[in-house]
Write a structure and sequence with these properties.
The complex is a heterodimer of chains A (226) and B (127). Chain A is α+β, with helices and mostly antiparallel strands. Chain A has three domains: 87 residues; 58 residues, CRO Repressor (2-Layer Sandwich), CATH 3.30.240.20; 54 residues, 2-Layer Sandwich (CRO Repressor), CATH 3.30.240. Chain A has nine helices and eight strands. Chain B is an all-alpha fold and 127 residues long. Chain B has six helices and no strands.
Chain lengths: 226, 127
């Protein structure tokens, strides 16, 4: 049991360092320690599940140790910037003032093709339009366009706007969600009138019906429901 | 902060549990080894009756810890020791070959030492 416990700690540390050394692009959307945890827990759970000759504790103890270690490390890294840098690394600026920072690309084992692909995914085809691109510790790329490339906001244009809020679903797949209707302050008669406006006579004929804070409605009729 | 202490507490509790396990297994194997060694000496003097009594006593002690052993050790290791006990008891019932029976007891002692050794937190085991 002791041996299992010590081996778990050793392997967790070893794999976390290994993934950290692999670089950010291998990580995906998790921090290195989180990815290690996900990989190891998934595998550990399978061991006693597949082999009846292995006690359940041989799977449960390492999983408990891993979860506890991950919690300890996450709490400590919240308190210590140095530990957080050690565990997760630092964000890397890969494009500065429209210029690719080659050294940072090499350090993160990110090829130029991969960088350009990621920028294209985010809608940037011209490097000159980018002020800064940062490869975050979780492997994702954050792009800040140059000020002149940013779309103007309503505030910048001096346009008065009203906040519509998040549209609330009142009818989902033909089912009326009465609680949402009441919470939005509407009555059934109002809903029937709105549905009639879309050519529907009952909630069961609507696939989706939403309303926002300003009273704007959106309706999709059920196929063959009318 | 509570999450930190709960996690640290869990790790410490598991360490304590592991320590208790090594100690409990050490006590159990020491008692069994002593009984089996005595049985072997009796067998070498061809004293079948006390030898059978000692091996039976050791087997009952081992069997009584079945739940604990099955939850903490690999079942293959436990089954191997159980088979050796049955083999020794069969020789003792037949009362034919004392030397062979003593050899089975010696093998049992060795198997018990091995399962204890495998649980010790030594560098050899960790690596």
């Amino acid at each position: 049991m002791f041996v299992v416990l010590i081996r778990t700690v050793v392997l967790y540390g070893f794999i976390t360092v290994g993934i950290r050394l692999l670089g950010k692009r291998q990580v995906g959307e998790l921090e290195p320690s989180e990815l290690t945890l996900a990989l190891m827990v998934a595998d550990l759970a399978c061991v006693p599940m597949q082999d009846n000759g292995i006690p359940l504790l041989f799977g449960l103890i390492p999983i408990a140790v891993l979860l506890a270690l991950a919690t300890v490390l996450s709490v400590l890294s919240l308190r210590s910037v140095r530990l957080r840098t050690l565990l997760c690394g630092r964000p890397s600026v890969v494009v500065r003032e429209g210029m690719v920072v080659e050294r940072e690309l090499r350090r993160n084992r990110l090829t130029l093709d991969e960088l350009l692909e990621e920028l294209r995914i985010q809608g940037y085809t011209d490097l000159r339009t980018i002020q800064t691109a940062v490869l975050e510790t979780n492997g994702r790329l954050s792009v800040l366009p140059r000020a002149e490339e940013k779309p103007p906001t309503a505030a910048q244009l001096g346009v008065k706007t009203q906040e519509p809020g998040v549209p609330v679903v009142l009818i989902s797949d033909g089912r009326l969600i009465g609680e949402n209707l009441r919470r939005q302050g509407y009555e059934r008669r109002w809903l029937d009138r709105q549905l009639a406006g879309y050519g529907l006579s009952a909630p069961s004929q609507a696939f989706l019906f939403t309303v926002d804070r300003l009273g704007n409605t959106y309706c999709v009729a059920k196929e063959g429901g009318r | 902060m509570r999450r930190l202490w709960v996690s640290v507490g869990l790790i410490l509790a598991l360490c304590a549990l592991a320590g208790w396990h090594v100690s409990a297994l050490g006590r159990l194997t020491a008692a069994l080894t002593q009984e089996l060694e005595q049985a072997r000496e009796e067998l070498l003097r061809e004293e079948w009756e006390p030898a059978q009594e000692l091996v039976r006593q050791a087997y009952d002690r081992w069997d009584g810890c079945g739940f604990y052993l099955h939850t903490t050790l690999r079942h293959g290791d436990i089954d191997e020791i159980r088979s050796s006990f049955h083999e020794a008891l069969a020789y003792l019932s037949a009362r034919e070959d004392a030397a062979e029976c003593a050899a089975v007891c010696a093998r049992l002692v060795n198997q018990l030492e091995l399962i204890l050794e495998a649980e010790q937190p030594t560098l050899k085991n960790v690596l």
